[in-house]
Amino acid sequence: MTFEEYQKNDALGLAQLIKKKEIQAAELFDLAVGRAQEANPKINAIVQETYDYGRKMMENLDGMGPFSGLPFLIKDLGIFVKGLPLRSGCRGYKDFVCPEDSELTKRLRKAGFIFMGKTNTPEFGLTPFTEPRLFGPSRNPWNLERSTGGSSGGSAASVAAGIVPLATASDGGGSIRIPASCCGLFGMKPSRGRITLGPQYGDLWEGGVVEGCVSRSVRDTAAYLDAMQGAGVGESYIIEPPERPYLEEVQKDPGSLRIAFNTSTPFGTSPEESCKEAVLNAAKLLADLGHEVEEVELPYRQEDLTQTFITVVYAQTAATLQVLEEYLGRKVGFASDVEPATWVMGRLGKTFSAQEYAYQKLKWAEMTRRIGAFHQKYDLILTSTLGMEPFEIGALQTSAAELRLAKLFLNLGLGSVLKSKLKSLAQKTFSWIPYTTFANMTGQPSMSVPLHWSEKGLPVGVMFSGRVGEEGLLFRLAGQLEKAQPWFDKVPEV
Hints:
Elements: H1 3-7, H2 11-19, H3 25-43, E1 46-49, H4 51-58, E2 71-75, H5 103-111, E3 114-119, H6 153-160, E4 166-171, H7 177-183, E5 186-189, E6 210-215, H8 218-228, H9 246-249, E7 258-261, H10 273-288, E8 292-295, H11 302-328, H12 340-350, H13 354-374, E9 380-384, H14 400-411, H15 415-420, H16 422-430, H17 437-442, E10 446-453, E11 459-465, H18 471-484
Parallel strand pairs: 2-3, 7-8, 7-9
Antiparallel strand pairs: 1-3, 4-6, 5-6, 5-10, 9-11, 10-11
């Protein structure tokens, strides 16, 4: 098999070739490794090679899983793989080796995936771009000077560059959908509780964090969720299992759906013109396909992001650093153990009182009910995935001068001054991701679909969010859109 032939197949297609003995798993693995050695020096997506580990896994293949023999990459965040490091983009964890598998890892093994490496992620997945100091930035295969998005940027870049057809991704504020949009991929954030985080975690970010994947085809993501979904022991959230396999849903007619859309952000601004154009084109396509599409005011408010979500994430970052201190047996060092921005977030998170945290949790619940009520009338919400095209690497980084000033204020006990500026600071980030975070807060399923490319040749995703537990409906629509406006053969030259 040549690389060109490899790239013409999705994950299920390659797995079927292995099952039919038209290609050996070892040959496919070597082809993926060769592509990684060619592309990764340009895109910096894989931060740990596990080629020997993968070859050993092939010795025990039983051929029973839906992805049996498929080379695979795992995001270096949240997922424990026994015997392999888990660094989470953090210097403080550079020597940490997983003592056990996550439940998800056990399911990955059962599905037949062959682990060939770990992918780049920002420190603790805290930023919507992938530029950790530990490993350096991942680069977008469509334009090497542009961001992959985050926090699953390494996984998305790997799939877009053709190293593997499928890779794990996780999403706490958009981290599956953001890089999917940036890299021209399909990315589905499942409902809260769909895939277990156990046994290491009960929940993260008040249930905002979920596991998933990025892929080039809709059916690959559907089959992946079929194989990975289900609760674990002692689960914090339990959700009804799907009525039928998601892989079946992809082929079903979605019927006529009522879809609300808007091209303004919760901040009263408009996304970049290419993002707005992507939504309007998608709305026309949906109408042509028989759906009822209506431009309405969406139930999103800026304070949901700049006050409620920020309070929870900053406070939980403080807890994340406390766990790191327990591991290190000492205080976390500014810039030595964690990045300066992470240290500032953690220290600032400590300044929130229990009352402030509880109050914002009440606001979180109010927002969830508000959006849930909106979905009594509309099946789906359509927006652009992002507020702008993939930006130049480094454009959203906090400056060194700003970080030094923030550290000084915190050391002087002036955290209240910084907290008063959080709203304006948050708007810089949320101008990039004005929509994705809401589905994390509500627990809704949400998907980015690669339906548009800008005049610069950069991918621009559109996003659909639906009712909790209705991934099946999203897959039916995604399958219809994939047939109506195919994207699989759009690949970057890198």
